[in-house]
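>> received
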Amino acid sequence: MTTLRQLRFLTALDETKNFSRAAELSNVTQSTLSTALKELEARLGVQLAERSTHKVLMTRIGTEIAARARDVLARVGDIEALAAAEAGTGATLLRLGAIPTIGPFLMPRALPALHSALPGTRVYLREELTDALLAGLTEGRLDLVLIALPHDLPPGVETAPLFRDGYKLAAPRGHPLGNLSEIGPGDLAERRLLLLEPGHCLQRHALSSFPDAALGEDGEFSATSLPTLVSMVAEGLGVTLLPELAVDAGVARGHDIALSDLPGARPREVVLAWRRSSASAALYRKVGEVLSQARTELAG
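>> returned
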């Protein structure tokens, strides 16, 4: 019989492409992992991985079975969470992922509220880019994720809308745009913006905030985080769009920059997402309500 242990070993090997690292990830010896996978191959009657001295290459069927194994393991995790909640065996652990342009600005306000609203619930917070968070969700490493749309979502993911996040234009003091209280698409026509480095969904969202303005990216500079982006603006390197959430949380505080309203900008949609197969949807919706309220309180 194929076992969950074998499936966990297979997904670890598919993730690492290395027997030693897969064994370390699985907290077993390399020989234990190798033997279990050979037994799995014998059971299934197919080769899952090609082995050589220096590398591991997953076969086509091995990759496909590993993907299905992740789904099985995630569903088993949901079953265990449901049973633990029903049995009242102790504190509930929520593995919550958040993108870097939301988590650091919303969660310091939201975490105390979550502890108050959901006593006995502990939150493990993971900060990653959107694609990594969605992979963690579908693979079962995370229970729910805090992301911004539009973004392509994998099958089987359910979302709850939390709030719409608009933008402020940040410009150095004395910049022509810094003298305007409100900025429209005409003011930004063909403007090149300082942005976060590739991989951040905010980069794409900012460029599409005014679809008719033909916004572009300043290819000479990019930032790894919003605080770094603010510092670059303060140094006079250019202008950028900052999410209102980050501004309300104080990302620009202490910097001598001008902030202007962008009433016509297309906002990003902040949502909470989880697996549709999860048995904890009611709990996750409660988490979403707390996060939405925290955002309202930040706005003052």
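>> The chain is about 45% helix and 25% strand.
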